[in-house]
Amino acid sequence: MKIESAIRDQYRKMAKDQGYRSRSSYKLLELDKKYNILKQNDTILDIGCAPGGWLQVSKKYSGPNGKVFGIDLNPIKPIPGTSVIQANIEDPNVVQIIKQRFSLSFDVILSDLSPSVSGIWHYDHERQISLTLVALQISKQLLKRGGMAVFKIFDGKYSSNVKQEASRLFMKVATNKPKASRLKSSEFYLVCSSFIGNDYTT
Ligand SMILES: C[S@@+](CC[C@H](N)C(=O)[O-])C[C@H]1O[C@@H](n2cnc3c(N)ncnc32)[C@H](O)[C@@H]1O
Fold this sequence. Notes:
Layout: H1 3-18, H2 24-35, E1 43-47, H3 53-62, E2 67-72, E3 82-86, H4 94-101, E4 106-111, H5 121-142, E5 143-154, H6 159-169, E6 170-176, E7 187-195
Parallel strand pairs: 1-2, 1-4, 2-3, 4-5
Antiparallel strand pairs: 5-7, 6-7
Helix pairs in contact: 2-3, 5-6
The structure holds S-adenosylmethionine.
């Protein structure tokens, strides 16, 4: 068996055994271990949350008083202690919808957004970057000052557009590829700390 598929099977089995809905959960767990993203009592927004693995991790780490919300094009089976809306993040009213349904501001915003991949690399890359830039704009309007955010990126020609915009909005921006992420996949994550706030941006 090839190493890559053995690792994939190992994470699938772990997710099944530990009750997580996706192997993606382990990517967030790894990032959290390194960067201490999720804290007790946090208010957390997960953008592109289906099937719900990151929501489960967020709920676990924010504790009984943590407030965990998600948004996705697709419906998900309910997860106790979390609320989800089925909506398109490209809807121009999405920030208003989130404020009305969830909260006016968030301690942490997570984005594991991925388009339905076509297999045509440059197209998938551009589409994923475009979605991530929308997630950044949403974060700009909804994060508390000092807040943290995580953004998945399909690496390629336009990755630097996201990094540049993130660097304007946060004091610190780190890049990381968790072990749970397939070696072959071009994805990596930006972990952004200390949101500076809109006063410093135009
Ligand atoms: C890789 S999955 C997220 C997995 C999730 N982190 C987990 O642990 O279960 C990416 C999600 O992004 C969502 N997505 C893609 N485009 C979107 C859009 N325009 N609006 C809302 N969600 C979107 C997809 O529906 C998909 O569920």
